[in-house]
């Protein structure tokens, strides 16, 4: 393998969580360890404020600033870590899901007080579908949260994943005393804002030692002994292959704000997290160590600021070496393109890069050449697969307010939905245009952009659907009958694929039961 050393260094991952669980705080601690930032608060200032109004221009302004935090690359202990941001508050969109197709693993942050929350459930469905390796960080142990065993059970049940504790907490809330490292058999005593030096760590080779009692008190020492005996008996040593196959998630307990338990996790992460690996295409598997470059676009960021009307396409490098100013093949357009100013995101500065390797993400200036899922190669014709379109969760009908601008409206809708933040459907056998999004904010963005960029004005009428399901069947007659029968709930997506728009879970389940020969899919591949 030509670029073996570069590939082995890379760890490309995302931190996912429900808003407020501590993703930003944890990200910041990682960057501090990586030396990519010097002061706490640097990431926070880029975060979309949760108290933000529905004023999306303000959110966009902040999002513009946060392009630089879309990918944060830093080095730690010889590893080159690419951390991809997954927008979470009002800017939650399909992008957030799709970013997960560009990473090799994830860290899931769970708030010990709130347990598993809605957004985590949604994101974990995508993770499970792709069998992405997960490490869990149970945060805010300094607060009175749920009982640890209950919490583990809740996470396992709700997210359908087996857990494997790597550290074990000694109390929680105001009595939180620290964590026991089950692998290294040592106790790290809790102190706020630790620099994670070794002075608070005591090696306990024997849990019955009096040192433990001395440090924790008799009652807590005894509880820890009992807990550890139980956990060791149940779990034993982590089998790293079960983590890599997405079956078992190692769990750490800590407090991100106090920088407690973070280093233990980061050290384990660089030890076990997967390096970039081969990827599927419509023709063959592309090995990560192949000499020739290939990569795909997983996200397009359009800046709404009229002063900086730039569009950035995010490319994940899958094989070979990406080079500045070199011609690559844009497979869908069958044309050769080159980039004179590709960005990289090392140390959170957007800076021009000369080359990039598998696992890296490069930002490309785009004037409208890219769609989500586009593949670049050194000439070979294939598309990367496994880059799905996800079912939207909010649906609205497009009502054209200016018939003179119908053409502009249609063009604008096609172009904006190519960017991947919203999906366009057309009612089956009719003309009604339906926009589907994952987050409410996107409708405002679309309305604004259509007016300002295309001169088209529209309003949205809410529709009572909760999911779009792509339909397939081995029995064309059954599918035809279903379409006839369900006429008003059927639409076509942009590629002309049949979609059933379900009003509720109940309707969907009923249709599934009544039509066993039809398959209902919540995702659709960008390339078939
Ligand atoms: P997010 O990116 O997942 O949305 O969460 P973020 O890191 O912004 O954290 C949400 C809130 O939780 C913040 O408080 C943060 O300080 C707090 N937090 C993070 N980790 C811990 C922890 O280990 N223990 C405790 N007790 N709190 C934690 P905030 O008041 O919303 O913001 P700020 O005023 O502190 O900036």
Strand order of the largest sheet: 28-25-27-26-30-31-29-32
Cα-to-Cα separation, first versus last residue:
30 Å
Radius of gyration (Å): 25 Å
- Kindly state the number of beta strands: 33
Number of continuous helical runs: 14
Shape: globular
Which consecutive residue ranges, at least 5 long each, have pLDDT under 50?
Answer: 48-54
* CATH arch. level architecture of the largest domain: 3-Layer(aba) Sandwich
How much of the sequence lies in strands comes to 25-35%
CATH superfamily of the largest domain: P-loop containing nucleotide triphosphate hydrolases
Main beta sheet strand tally, sense and closure: 8 strands, antiparallel
What is the third-level CATH name, the topology of the largest domain? Rossmann fold
Q: Approximately how much helix is present in the residues?
A: 25-40%
